[in-house]
Amino acid sequence: MNDKLIERVCEKCPATQWGKKSICSVHNLHVGKIETCPEWDNYIIENQGLMDRSGQLAFINLELALEVVTKVEEEIKGFNWMVKEVERLGKEIDRAISSNPMIQEKLVATYGDAAGMPSGKGLRLSTLTISEERYEKQIQRMKNLEDKVRKINEFALNLEDDKFRTVTECMMDGMRMNSIARHVGVSRQRLNEIKRDIVKRMARELYSDE
After folding, report:
1. What pLDDT is attached to residue 86?
2. Rounded to an integer, what distance in angstroms lies between the CA atom of residue 108 and that of residue 144?
């Protein structure tokens, strides 16, 4: 966990003297030997809105919060990939079902609609070109990806601030941060602040129960 905090906080901290030894002038230690730091706690509070308990933050809360932040960032960056993967899985599932008209009529539904996905359970093996187990795993994986894509889309659409929405959509499209800064007309520092706020909001909305 400390490695993540060093990467996110210490690398940008003016107190860190990078070089062969990478010393923190505040702690007078190599950054890899630092066990706790108020700046780490501030980072978690700022980015995840965690409340301290009598001035202390539980270690497990810090760890889970960092995991959620990382997870959300990766999902935003991988949005286009998830969309393409849903399409690929849909085609593969279609091919897995035989061309028997009765089976097609009974099982094949529009992916992601209220009718849900077709189930391979109980089918005779001769009706599928892959095993039932793999068929069910592919369906579940596609459902999970569809759910993430839907939630991220809804989050972006519900952002009231046009600049925040534009930044979110650019990140979803895979644009580089320098290009986004030029497109939106803000400094790289301001863009980083907007990005942190977006990730914080999305983490709260998508993973508040975790």
Report:
1. 92
2. 18
* Tokens (6 digits) for 34: 């630092």
Could you identify the residue written with the tokens 């600049």? 163
With cut-offs at 50, 70 and 90, classify the pLDDT of residue 144.
very high
- How far apart are the C-alpha atoms of 164 and 184, rounded to whole Å? 9
Strands (E), the chain: 16-17, 23-24, 29-30
127 has a pLDDT exceeding 60: no
In what side-by-side order are the strands of the sheet with 23-24?
Answer: 16-17, 23-24, 29-30
Nearest-angstrom CA–CA distance, 169 and 115: 29
pLDDT of residue 102: 45
Measured CA to CA, the distance from residue 155 to residue 153 in angstroms comes to 5
